[in-house]
Amino acid sequence: MQGIAAEQPQRTEVREDCEQRMTQQQDGAVDLFTSSDLLLADLHLPPLPGDGGAGPLNLAFRRFCDGPARQAQRVFILGDLFEVWVGDDAGLVEHAEDIAALRRLVDAGVEVYFQHGNRDFIVGHAFARATGLRLLPDLAVFEIAGVPTLLAHGDLFCTDDVGYQRWRRFSRNPLAQWLYNRLPLARRRRIAGGLRQDSHKQRKAEAIMDVNEAAIRQAFGRAGVRRMIHGHTHRPAEHRYDIGGVAHERIVLADWRPERLEYLQADAQGLRRQRLAAA
Ligand SMILES: [Mn+2]
Fold first, then answer.
1. Structure pTM?
2. How far does the centroid of ligand 1 lie from the alpha carbon of residue 48, in Å?
3. What is the CATH number of the domain that holds 136?
4. How far, in Å, from the CA of 42 to the mean position of ligand 1?
């Protein structure tokens, strides 16, 4: 309820901002409806016991929420915010401080959106209520820097990993999730731990899977867009495609490391990679 009180003055500010922009627009200075957005993915924040301790990535994320994110109108977290998520019940406790930082950001009037990653695919509505952010479907189109843009975590495009895609379909099944959420916490942790070990073993054997180019072209076609932004592969890059004579663009977000706390800023000037200053 605190959130509603905090949101109202923000709406007025946004309106004033738009009016101001309209005035500027008449001078041809500013693109009218381009908002300032920040996009990030693959922070892989580790869960920590509720003793007030925190790792460098957790602390960096809180600095991000209390710092540069406050200047944005929208923040898009494209999955794998958390290294592991065994359920909202445990996650809300283990990540209480990370969640409080998100809540402060939302209460300050910033719209925050979240897509599920392959690590935190079980994030649910209790997390959304606690933070005030909005859960997005796996594929979502938003106008980013004035361009309709497909947003995704990215694991859906790694279709060469047939075993993973099979697991993905099963694990995203609402009935499977309903059953999992009813298991005792210790059992859920064992299952999650086993899955992570499997994926580590697999990665050593096959090297990290990248996206499948046919899946990318198909996703562009289905979404009807010429730009997409995703994470997951930990291979930050800008890829350009010529599809039927039309230029398309795929931007891969960087995963977070203590020495590279990177996010994408999108506004009237376009897109650029930014780094959070070290503490
Ligand atoms: Mn991922």
1. 0.85
2. 20
3. 3.60.21.10
4. 6
